[in-house]
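JOB MANIFEST
job_type = single_chain_structure
chain_count = 1
residues = 161
[input]
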Amino acid sequence: MAKAYSDDFRQKVMQAIELDGLKKCEASQLFNISRNTINLWLQRKAQTGDVKPKPKKASQQSGKIKDWEKFRSFVKQHGDKTQGEMSQLWDGEISQRTISRALQKIGHTRKKTYGYSQRDQAKRAGFLAQLDNPKASHLVSLFCHFPSILNKRRKRENPER
């Protein structure tokens, strides 16, 4: 946001127009400000008796998350809910967008994992051995239904082929 003109500058412009008889368009060129700004200052002076800028509103700090540990435990408890629902459940007024930014900041994601971060080769070898066992008819192999999967597996295991 642009910074407001100083009170002293505003008084000089008003003095030039009212006391010295300078026209608004001449004053705007002389002081390098827009004519609309001068009109707004004149309106404010007529309404309030002064050309001081309006007081700035206090920023809404209530919509910020300050206690990150509390937020992390809140996410653990309500992580299955939507961001809109989480914003309604949070203590105090907070927007869905703030929840979204906070989740991103703490690294929370809803991306699905498949229960492992790395393949356990021992378990995999055991399962493949069970598939070769004729008594394991209850196990279904996708390789017989989808030969392309088997070909990819073979290429991975034997890259020379």
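[summary]
Residues 35-48 form the longest helix (14 residues).
Residues 17 and 23 are 6 Å apart (CA to CA).
exit_status = 0
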